[in-house]
Amino acid sequence: MVETLTREQVMAHRIAAQGLHRDRALDPLSSLGLQDSGPTARLALAARTDGEVDPVARGLVDGWTHRGAPHHHPPAERNEIAVAARPFDDADAGARLNWSGPEQRRVGIPAREAVDRAADALVEVVTEPMTKGAASGGVTKLLPDALLRDCRPCGCVHVNEQLFRLSAFPVGVGLDPTQKTLLLTPPPADWERPVEGDPARAARLVLDYLRVLGPAGPREVADFVGTSPTAFAPAWEQALPGLVEVSVEGRRAWLPAGDLDAALGAPDPDVVRLLPPLDPMLQARDRPLLVPDEALRKDLYKIIGNPGALLVDGEIVGTWRPRASGKKLTLELAPLLPLAPDARSRLDDEAERVAAARDLKLAGLTGQAGV
User: Which of 28, 55, 92, 283 could form a disulfide bond with 72, CB atoms 3.0-4.6 angstroms apart?
Assistant: First the structure.
C-alpha cells in the first residue's frame, strides 16, 4: 500500500530533516552541501545552529560542485562528491554543460572528452592558489578553439565558463573563499582523480536529496545535480531499491525507506526562521509545492537579486531583504499577510542572529504592515 502524505506533512518533514528545529547535531547536508554566495552559507548555518556559523571555521571545504555552483562540503565527503560530479557518459556531460545537439556538433568534441581536456589543463595550471582569471587564462591557452567562447563582459576569448567549473572538482581543484578575491586551490597531495563516473556512488546524491528535500522524484534530483533525468537515470536506479514510494498531492514521489516513519510523524514545524537566498530549503525543485502562491514564488526565484524567505510555522509566508549601512543592518520584511503577534516576537531573535552572522548590529525591522 502506498502511503499518502499531505503537503503540510512534507513541509514539516523537510524542516525537521534539515535541522531547522535546532535540536540535533548539525549535519552540513552531507553531499548536498551549502551553496555559497556572499553570506548565504553563514546565514543558512545560523538558521540551523546556535554554534559556529563560519563554514571555514567549521572545517568545511569549498568547490564548484552541483550545477557548477560553489558549495561548502564536509572534507570527508570531498572524494565521494568528486565521483558523483564525474559525468557518466557524453549524454550526461552534455546535459551538465547545457549543450544542445547543435552546440555539441559545432564543438566537434564529445562532451565528456571536453570535460577531461579542461580538467587536464586545470591540473597543469593550478599548482598554487591563484585567481579565477589567472587560472582561466592559463587553461584557455591549453585548449582547442572549439572549447573557447567569445565573452562580451570580459571583452576576450576564454574557456567556456560551465566547462571550466564542472572540470574543477573531479580533479580536486577547490576554492578558497576567505580572501578578498576568490582563489582556486590545487588538488590535495593525496587526491584520487575519478576515472569514470560511478552510478552506485552517485546514488548517494539521490538518497541525500530525498532525505532532506523529499519526497521527490527523479526529475527533481537530476535538476538539483544539473543534468537530465534520462542522463542521471543510472544513479536513480542504483538508489531505487532503498526507496519507498509515496503519494503527495496526487503525484508519485519517493523517500529513503528508513525515513517514512519520520515523515509521517514529523514534529509540528513551530519555528520562525529567516532563510537566506539559496538556502537548502529553497533548493527543492518542486517549487509549486514549496511555495504555492505564484506571485511569492516568482519573487523568491528571480534570475538575480533573490530575497530571503520568511518561514513561519511550516509555511513560507513572505520575503525579507537586508539593508546594510556601515556596521548597522536593517531587515525589510514583506509578509503576504499580517503576522501574528507571536510570530512577530520570535522574529526579533532571528533578526539578531542574521545580524550577528554578518558581523553587524541590528538596527531594526521594517516593512511589517499590520504586524
Answer: 55
More confident site: 75 or 173: 173
Q: pTM to 2 decimals?
A: 0.93
Q: Are the CB atoms for 92 and 232 separated by under 8 Å?
A: yes
Q: How far apart are the first and last CA of the chain?
A: 45
Residue with cell 586551490: 185
Cα–Cα separations (whole angstroms), residue 310 to 98, 296, 334, 335, 358:
32, 11, 8, 7, 18
Distance of CA 86 to the CA centre of its chain: 17
Q: For 139-170, write each residue's pLDDT tens digit.
A: 999 999 999 887 777 777 889 999 999 999 99
Scanning the structure block, which residue is given the C-alpha cell 536593517?
A: 330
In angstroms, what CA-CA distances link 35 with 42, 65, 77, 111, 125? 10, 9, 15, 26, 26
Residue burial 240-268, b: 16+ Cβ < 10 Å; e: rest: eeebbebebeeeebbbbeebbebbeebee
Rounded Cα distance, 299 and 313, in Å: 20
